[in-house]
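OP here, attaching both records as promised.
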Amino acid sequence: MLINRFLLIFLALYLLPLSVFCSDNNNDADDEWVTRMNELTALVPQNIDSVLSLGNEHLEECPFNDARKDGYYHALMAEVYYFKQELDLSLKAYQTSLAAFKGSEDSGRLAVLYNNIGLLHYLHAEFDSALVAYNHSLELELLANNKEGIAQSYQNLGIIYGKWERYSLVDEYYTNALRIYEELGNHSAIADVTNNIAVIAVRVNDIPKGLAYYKKAFDAYSKIDNEKGVATVASNLGRLFGKEYQLERAQHYFDVALEIFHRINYKLGLVHTYSMIGEMNIDIGEYDKAMLALGKASKHNESIGLREVQLGNLEVLYDAYKELGQFELANTTLEKSYALKDSIFNEEQFDKLIELEKKYHAEKSQKELAMMKAKEERSRLFMWGISILFLLLSTIVLIWVYVLKIKENKRQVDMEQKVLRTQMNPHFIFNSLSALQCIIMENNREDAVDFVADFSGLMRLVLQYAKEEHITLKKEKEILDRYMSLQNRRFDNKINYKIEFDEHIKMEEVLVPPMLTQPFIENAIEHGRLTQDGGYIHVRLQRYEDLLEFSIEDNGIGINNAIEDGKLHDKKHKSIALGLTRERLSLLNSKDNSANVTLKIEDLSKFGGRGTRVVFHVPYMTYN
């Protein structure tokens, strides 16, 4: 399985420097004390113990009240904990410092604190909290017109959205960050963003672009003697060449990365690199080497707690144990990975992430709108008087009532859609369990383990997306692939099936109602007699202007013969499968009157062929 292990570069991985802080008072002596405190804090990476001692002595002479003194102390300790790689303690110290300085007017200090808090949430795979912190940091940097800080926030927000495969937003944020860094001539930051662009290019399978940007980043880091950057790119190149089975080149780059990371004692880089080496050895069947590398990754990860890397390693270990025939360990590892995955990427967290994004932009828009309204209202009162203002308010009330009525209608239709999808789930699960029963009765232990793993994965997808009105084509195809694989096992893989989507459609961005095609595939299997030699099911998807056309075709006995043989006389079954799907399509039509949502079922015998073809259309939709 492919895991997104490439090392991304946060400018905040080095933590934003405290020297950007300024004092919010006019006392020269106070400013001098703050400047010295910032200088000491900036020296933490060079000699932690000495700087900590000097910092504590300097704090004894703090000219501010106890609350402010406490804020400076915890800011210093947060840096100390970070460079000791004690991330939990560092996060708590930063949060305490932020609370102490929230009442100040030092926007530079607050922006840096929010930025570094965002980094630590990211390293703990708490992406919703990281998004909140980075948005606060960006808002403060924009207010201060600090271009360096704005670019850093853009880059870090791009990394967050990359975790949720929102690649259009990732590209937008990275492009903005790179443009600002080039204006500022910040070569180190340009190298960082270049590495991250390469990572995203490889994720979307643009290997030539990825290699070109990795080379640019590697050369840039080498010129400025940034060893950590060189090692990061080397690790990424090792992983990429490993996936391409260029093993000597892969091992060369891994060795370069490990030598540097060990020398500078950078545990985060060691965790990622050993994890990549373990994954590569799993792919080529070197299980002993893989176990050794993953064990080293786990040991280095104990003190920093990178949960997402831990999840990837558990998934790789599951594959290894299964191949080695250690089924009990495989099942135990699978259960651990599912539990960890639920805590990182559960549906509620994703919903919360989107809600936080909307809330941030809404609050920003509301502030801007409030300022505009205040100016406009004063002008109108001065020029036209109370009568015009009354007319304006009356118009707003009428529009608001109209909007509320539209929202209520939409809510009712959405509720009907959810009810229909919920009704389909028990029927879907029943048929999948039938396939499981057949394999269990054959007493094939290895196939049973594989089937249980695949079945649990399928059920997780079904339960996860049952409440969704739309999902991406990528997720829809994953559900169909898993469903067909499970059903086909019932008939010794006699059914040939093909799921073919238009190559010009971006599957990560296009949205469709979930599980619309599954009932028709089910009918073809159950009633089309496809278990004879040569049976096939072919699912196609094409775009026609503002519509997506789904086509499900089989070479079974045909719908007319099935009716004659009494195959479809089961009224109850028909109402669940075809009836609910017809009603869902009808509801889609009622939501978008301009959409031509249709359903057509044809017996191919009238065209001189054999089998049945089902064709239906749904509106073409994307995230935008």
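Record two, same layout:
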Amino acid sequence: MPEDATTLPSRPLEEQLEAPRSAPGISAALSGLLLELTPSGVALVDAYGLVVRFANDALRAAAGDQELDLVGRTVEEIWPSEAGLELRALLEATAKTGEPSRCEWLPDRGGGGLQRSFTAHARSLPAGSGRALLLVLWETTEMQGARRQAERSRERAELIASVAADLNGGVDLGAVLGTAVRRAAELLGAEDASVWLLDAAGKELCRTAEREAHGGRDALPLRYLPGAQEALRDRAARLVRREQATALERAWIDMRRLSAALVVPLVDQAGTMGVLYLEYQGTRFLPEPSDVAFAEVIAGQCALALGRARVFEAERAARARAEQAEREARWAEGLQERVAAVVGHDLRTSLEAVALGVSLLERSSGATFAERATLDRMASSVAQMERVIADVLDVARTRVGSAIPVERAPVRLDEVARAAIDEMAAAGVARVALTVEGDCALSGDASRLAQLVSNLCRHVHRHRVGGAPARARMVGGPDEVMLEVEVDGLGADPAALAQLFEPFHESERGTLRGDPGLGLFIVREIARAHGGAVRVIPAGAVTLFQVVLPRR
């Protein structure tokens, strides 16, 4: 405090500031009227106790309570928070130095949640033989809002230019979409953003890019999001509020803990492609018309990127199909010779064993132990011959475009698998430990399914490390049954793993006599004939073979 701040006369401050009646110019009454009418908040503060002696309506409005009598109170009593302490520090600095002071000042939010901003000025005034302090609060809320809006507009323009530059520069599609959704969420005040594309049938939305990885579903039936359906139909953005959403859409919104979502369609010359989905968890900063317009521009850039990517992908796929057709033509040229050689070799070997056994039986006078052993070998050779012939015929069918024939009936896949595994164990071919979870009933061909299990387990048995049984797991789901078998090694090259299911693959041509290498190929074709699929998944030191079959 300056020294004279402690020696103010005891007269009221209004009297000290009142102009003499004979003084020319504006009267004190008129001065007070002007202070009341000024839009800025004005207060006269006692320099000694920092107590307000006069305050106009604008200052009372800044205090947030028009009924509060400010006279006789300190600023920290009027604003009992950090805001009040900031004003007191400003006044103390002016009282101490006698020099004007100013600061940017943010009072507490009002009841409506609006954050107002001010520039606070403090100046020392003469008051009789002492001094008073003049406090002026100049509101800058609109000016700050205009500055923020200008900054947002600049950032939005930069984002649009950046996405366009990435498109022209051939940047990876995933990187373009990732940048677009991340920055769009930031500039539109959304908690999250993602791009969802329609599938080929137009029935499902598939998540392609997102701001943050949350897990959960990567595909969602379009009927679950009527807001997205309407946005795609009308080709116009739609703001979906929780309280206005249908039951299905509200369930999705509740699961994501949202209050609203802005759904913007992705549209190019070919039609609708999907949606840009912006998520809002509060109601304070929902998008305005200018925000929607910006979101539509970003969605247009995303649609352009996707359109270019699809053209490139179509060209690449066409080249790949042409190359594949050429490879298949070359493969087909030698197929007949290879099939003839394989069938001839295996039939000749099996028939030689049969002929030898018959010859021995003809020369024997009774069924000795040796003859019984011979009969066993004959039975084994005949079984092997039948399996090879069946496999070769199956290959021939698939090469001419026909599926492996199946005769469907209600079966339990777990029972079929256990019977096949027990048969292989009894013959010393393979040992497999099978665990079953859930109901594994389905409609299928029991003999073909047993062949599938047998071929798959034989392959795994060849590649196992050590003498432990191979591990298999069967799980019955709501609409399908999954068989998973674990095999050691095989590497992790996706292209090499995909070739495992081609006929005559080297990994299938083991040391087993009469095995041409058709086992996994037959597994794949049996699964396809049942409407299922086979996948091979690298999992560290092991590889998983997954067979998924629909129940019907």
